[in-house]
Amino acid sequence: MKLPRIEINQQFARLGLERQAGQLKIETPTPQLDVRQEHVSVQISRSDSELTIDQRKAWSALGKGRFEEVTDRIAQHSLQVSMQNIANLAREGDRMMASHEKSNAFAEIARERVFRQHYIEIAGEPNYDNVDVSFIPGKLETDWKPGGVNFEYHSTKPSIDYYPGKVNPYIIQKNFIFFNATGQHLDAVM
Predict the structure, then answer these.
(1) Which of 14, 19, 95, 164 lies deepest, with the highest CB count within 10 Å?
(2) Which InterPro entries match (predicted)?
(3) Does residue 28 contact residue 177 with C-beta atoms inside 8 Å?
(4) pLDDT, tens digit, for every residue of 4-35?
(5) How far is CA 182 from the centre of its chain?
(6) How many C-alpha atoms does 40 have within 13 Å on its Cβ side?
(7) What digits encode the pLDDT tens for the residues 56-81?
(8) What is the DSSP string of 40-54?
(9) 162: nearest Cα among 24, 29, 66, 62
(10) C-alpha dist (Å) from residue 80 to 54, 68, 72, 76
């Protein structure tokens, strides 16, 4: 026995949207700025400066220093020369004691001493900074009256236009439900 059947066919709806974007239009005119300046007034007064130059080191470097400096320098240099002579005597004594060497130490030392000279430097040390310079600046007084700047601003308003967008919906396909009964005995009771 064949039972009746119900067939259901369904189709969904499809919607479409047509859209037009909104627009914003802004026009801004250029603003104006007027600037006026008032000049500054300045009065200046000053006192004299003082310049001091000490060139004693420069004269000393040329060998024309003060008597106290020259004698002090001779004493210091003499001490250095005497210390050097003591060191030389010790070294020469060591050479004379080295009798195993084939050289004649006594003759060589005598030859060296004939030409050895000790110079005492009475001039000061030459230097690029031998002249001391001191400078005391004078006083500078200023009296000033400030000027000013005046601004005048003229603003302009922007013009704004807005065009709204649009949305139009439409149906592409309608929806439906279709029922169908098939079979031989629809009214049969079972």
Answers:
(1) 95
(2) DUF6470
(3) no
(4) 778 888 999 898 888 888 888 998 888 888 88
(5) 93
(6) 7
(7) 887 777 777 777 887 888 888 888 88
(8) PEEEEEE---EEEEE
(9) 24
(10) 29, 19, 13, 7
